[in-house]
Structures are given as C-alpha cells and as structure tokens.
Amino acid sequence: MKITGNTILITGGGSGIGRGLAEALAKAGNQVIVSGRRRKMLDEVVAANPAIRAVVLDVEDAAGIRAFAAQMQREFPKLNVLVNNAGIMRPENLQAQTDDLADAEAMLRTNVLGPMRLTAALLPLLRKQDRSAIINVSSGLAFVPLAMTPTYCATKAAIHSYTQSLRWQLRKTTTQVIEIAPPYVQTHLMGTQQASDPRAMPPADFVGEVMQILKVQPDAVEVCVERVKGLRFAAEYGKYDATFVGLNEAMSS
C-alpha cells in the first residue's frame, strides 16, 4: 500500500492504536477519517489534528453500519483505504459466567461482526477506486492466546482467518488486503494499568515501526513489528507450548 495520497477510514480512531495510526497517516499526506462510538474522544482527535475528519459509528449496530456506508459514499467518494481497528477486550472467568454471556457477545459483535459488516458495506466503494486497501488489525494473541481473555483472543484468531480468505478472494483485483498484528501495546484496551505497563510497547514506537514497514514493503500482506514475532511465529519456531505457558504465567503475576 502506498502510504500517501489516500482517503482513509480508521475505526476506533479516537484513542490508542487507531488514533496513533490516524495521526501518522495524516502527517504522511492522506485524508483521514476517524470513527468511533464516543463523540468526545473523536472531537479531541480533531482538535489536535484539524485536518482529520470524524464521524460517529458504533460497529455493533448493523443498521448503523449500512447508513454509515451510505454517508461515506456521499461525503468521501474517493475513500480507498479501510482500517478495521475498533475492538474491545474484557477478561472472562469461564468457570463463573452468567447465562447471557454479555461480554463474549459484545466482543464478537465488535471485533468480528463489525469488521465483516463494514467491509461488506464499503467494498463496492473501495472497488470503484483505481487502487484500494483493507487493513484488518488482529493481535499477537490471535496466534498464542492469553487465557484470561479467551473470547478476545478467539475473535482475533477469527479476524486473521477471515483476512486470509478475503485476500484470496480479492487476489485478482486492485484491492490489497493487509493484516496488522500488534503486540502488547500501552493503550487503555484493558484499562489504565495496561496504558502504563512497562512491559507493553509504547504506542509511538509501535506506530512508527508499522509506518516504516508499510513504507519499505508496499506489497506487505502482514505487518508484524519485531516485538510481536515471538507470538506470531511461535508455532513455526517450534516454541508454541513454552510461549503459551510463559505468556500466561507472566500476565497472571
């Protein structure tokens, strides 16, 4: 993917990795639109970055996604990059779950159905462009799960699989399909403790490395910074069992 001259939509762009990517891509010479559920956070992004546009979207709302896609068609007819970044992560005790499985269902709607629905809704617009890209943000935990967040890890594994199938189906088109698999990053995904955890990668470092990979590897299909490779390639390295145990022991201490 060329990292300049695009019109880019980033879901979950009000904070964390989404905001970091939005600001970096805007500085690289792209028209960037951020979306999210919370207007206040989107307004903060725009206030700090006047060139960025913001539109409220709840990716759990199927009908809202259809209306949002129509709005994108009207307001941003040159949209050629979709970044499916919005996600939620909640711990779960599988031995003491409520009957309604509310947390699990919310993660499935946001992390899996949201990107699938938005991709389907926007693909016709993306395909109208001379070149386009769909970027799905998965996680290193798609490859080695963190047991305290089982549904989150399962959703990211699903996104990895979905992305591979999408890439294959679009292989003869001008729409590129890219997966970004972040490591443990200092965001508020799991609250304030994660945002200040010295074991987590600083967001600026993560975004900077991602941008560099995209710049030097415009045909990349997976973007893996160095700090995620231990998880991403644990099975390939023959270290899956040790990595799984080490991860879960470390994160439970």
Summarize the structure in words.
Helix 1 packs across helix 7 and helix 3 runs parallel beside helix 4 (102-128). The chain has helices spanning 16-27, 39-48, 62-75, 102-128, 150-169, 192-195, 203-216, 229-232, 240-251; strands at 7-11, 31-36, 53-56, 81-84, 132-137, 175-180, 222-223. The protein has a single domain (7-228), classed as NAD(P)-binding Rossmann-like Domain (Rossmann fold, 3-Layer(aba) Sandwich), CATH 3.40.50. It contains nine helices and seven strands, in the order E-H-E-H-E-H-E-H-E-H-E-H-H-E-H-H. Helix 1 (16-27) links the parallel strand 1 (7-11) and strand 2 (31-36). A seven-stranded parallel sheet has the order 3-2-1-4-5-6-7, with helices on both faces. The chain is globular and about 50 Å long. With 253 residues, the protein is an alpha/beta fold.
List keywords for this structure.
Rossmann fold, 9 helices, 253 residues, alpha/beta, globular
Write the layout of secondary structure elements.
Layout: E1 7-11, H1 16-27, E2 31-36, H2 39-48, E3 53-56, H3 62-75, E4 81-84, H4 102-128, E5 132-137, H5 150-169, E6 175-180, H6 192-195, H7 203-216, E7 222-223, H8 229-232, H9 240-251
Parallel strand pairs: 1-2, 1-4, 2-3, 4-5, 5-6, 6-7
Helix pairs in contact: 1-7, 3-4, 4-5
